[in-house]
Design brief:
With about 500 residues, this protein is α/β, with parallel strands linked by helices. The protein has two domains: about 190 residues, no CATH class; about 180 residues, NAD(P)-binding Rossmann-like Domain (Rossmann fold). About 30% of the residues lie in helices and about 15% in strands. It is built from twelve helices and 18 strands. The longest helix is centred in the C-terminal third of the chain and has 24 residues. The N and C termini lie far apart (about 55 Å). It catalyses: L-threonyl-[protein] + UDP-N-acetyl-alpha-D-glucosamine = 3-O-(N-acetyl-beta-D-glucosaminyl)-L-threonyl-[protein] + UDP + H(+); L-seryl-[protein] + UDP-N-acetyl-alpha-D-glucosamine = 3-O-(N-acetyl-beta-D-glucosaminyl)-L-seryl-[protein] + UDP + H(+). This is EGF domain-specific O-linked N-acetylglucosamine transferase. Keywords: Endoplasmic reticulum, Glycoprotein, Glycosyltransferase, Signal, Transferase.
Length: about 500
């Protein structure tokens, strides 16, 4: 039975907490009939564009198109039909520019060659060859081949879709050419490094964005979908629980279907983690802008689906303190050599911070990590993938990248995309490297491959600046008033019970 439209379910429910947004006309921002003032995004550009554009309006529009729901809109507008059905029940293939996103109906894929490949593989561009992907439809060969120029494993679907061919047989559950027919919508994923939070969350972010590119309909956020990972390695990652935000079904990989011809009623080839001018790896973003609605929505989507409690559900004290989490690295490089001294300085600060040291390893439950981050106002850590947690900080929070090791844009850009206040160390006289650092490949000096100690007073000065931002943020002040009301109500209740 088809799921009822979410809005209709909310209308008819007595305890739906979202009734205040029904019938308001609110929209994401990429729909053709979505006025800007009703769109999801609160993106703004308080800073200088440094010559990128010629006006403030152009600066904001550039940011929206680069990194917000305007990016989704551009993907949608660039979609063209590559293979068109000529009768009901036939196949369909449509793709955005450079085959960065594709989706099809009644598609055929031939995996009969895979058993001969004994070694496990990923990032291979020769999984398919001519005739091993196709459908019964009219193929525009010129258009397909003119778009298939981004030939790299994680840049586009060109290495796979370029081999699409017209078939004479109709693709459906009765077809003789289908050894297996998959009825559920299937998202086929080429994924980045699963051990690294920064890179793996590029996968999850682009999958979330692809739900929007795929279309606004009542099933767009359904968890009754398949995820097929385009490799033969068994999937292992400490971040694996994040898949449950997207699917309720077991993950599949190419070994699931090796030796078979597989047909899909609906297949989606999502946006990829290392697209040219994609999001968010290595993406140039116009200066001076921040707070992408797309990144904000992704953050809230993951936290909601993984059932991570909001801060207001955690704190019930009359005078909450600003909470600081110091990320400790148990690694060979980029450790804080005087970490204990900095930690003690925070605890003894007259600002009376609530301070905890956290260590997120590959054994730390990821839901626990997110609960810690949601309960953090200032997140402090050295340059490294662990700072990707900033995506899931509360809206009022600040991140302090203790030292960026010369990679000044990576987490600064990620913070402004998410709309989180960012600080980093700027006075190089007041930090001390253990040595010049030695790059593992060539042995040359490199700032990322050593450890550091930091001046205590300068450290506290920067933390205090971050704390000023948190204390003055409207969302933080609103949260405090909510907590105080809850605490007062609890005190009255206890008084009544005496």
């Amino acid at each position: 039975m088809e799921l009822q439209d979410e809005a209709q379910k909310c209308h008819s429910s007595n305890n739906c907490i979202y009734k205040n947004v029904l019938d308001t006309g609110l929209c994401w921002g990429y729909e053709t009939n979505c006025p800007q003032h009703l769109g999801y995004s609160n993106a703004h550009c308080p800073g200088d564009h440094k010559g990128w554009v010629s006006s403030k309006h152009q600066q904001l529009q550039t940011f929206i198109n680069q990194a917000d729901f305007g990016f989704v809109r551009q993907q949608i507008l660039s979609k063209t039909t590559m293979c068109e059905p000529t009768a009901d029940g036939e196949s369909l293939l449509e793709c955005s520019s450079y085959l960065q996103f594709c989706r099809g109906k009644n598609l055929y894929l031939d995996f009969r060659d895979l058993p001969a490949r004994k070694e496990s593989f990923r990032y291979k561009m020769d999984v398919l060859k001519k005739g091993q992907i196709g459908g019964k439809c009219k193929l525009d060969k010129f258009r397909l081949h003119s778009e298939a120029t981004h030939q790299s494993p994680l840049q586009s679907w060109a290495p796979e879709i370029q081999y699409f061919e017209e078939l004479s047989d109709t693709v459906n559950e009765e077809s003789q050419i289908c050894d297996v027919f998959i009825d559920k919508p299937t998202f086929i994923m080429k994924i980045d490094a699963t051990v690294n939070m920064y890179h793996h969350f590029c996968d999850f972010f682009n999958l979330y964005s692809s739900l929007h590119v795929n279309g606004t309909h009542s099933q767009m956020f359904s968890r009754d979908i398949n995820i097929l990972i385009w490799e033969t390695y068994a999937y292992h990652s400490n971040f694996g629980i994040t898949w449950s935000a997207f699917t309720q079904n077991p993950l599949m990989n190419l070994r699931t279907f090796q030796g078979k011809r597989v047909c899909f009623r609906e297949a989606v080839f999502p946006l990829l983690p290392r697209m040219i001018f994609g999001l968010y790896y290595n993406t140039p973003i116009v200066w001076g802008c921040k707070d992408s609605g797309l990144f904000h929505a992704f953050s809230k989507f993951i936290l909601h689906r993984l059932k991570i409690p909001k801060r207001t559900a955690i704190d019930h004290v009359a005078k909450p303190k600003i909470k600081i989490s110091l990320l400790s690295r148990n690694t060979q490089y980029r450790r804080i050599l005087n970490e204990q001294a900095l930690f003690d300085a925070l605890r003894l600060s007259p600002r009376q911070y609530s301070v905890k040291r956290v260590e997120f390893t590959h054994e730390t439950d990821f839901r626990h990590q997110l609960r810690v981050i949601q309960d953090t106002d200032i997140f402090i850590g050295m340059h490294g993938a662990g700072l990707t947690h900033l995506l899931f900080l509360p809206d009022w929070a600040a991140v302090f990248e203790l030292y960026n090791c010369g990679d000044e844009h990576c987490y600064a850009d990620l913070a402004r995309l998410r709309g989180i206040h960012y600080q980093t160390w700027t006075n190089h006289v007041k930090l001390q490297p253990q040595d010049e650092g030695h790059h593992p490949s060539d042995g040359g000096p490199h700032a990322k491959f050593t450890n550091y100690s930091f001046d205590k007073e300068e450290f506290l000065r920067i933390v205090d600046l971050a704390a000023d931002h948190v204390a003055n943020h409207p969302a933080y002040r609103h949260m405090l008033s909510h907590i105080r009301k809850s605490a007062t109500g609890s005190q009255h209740l206890r008084s009544d019970e005496l």
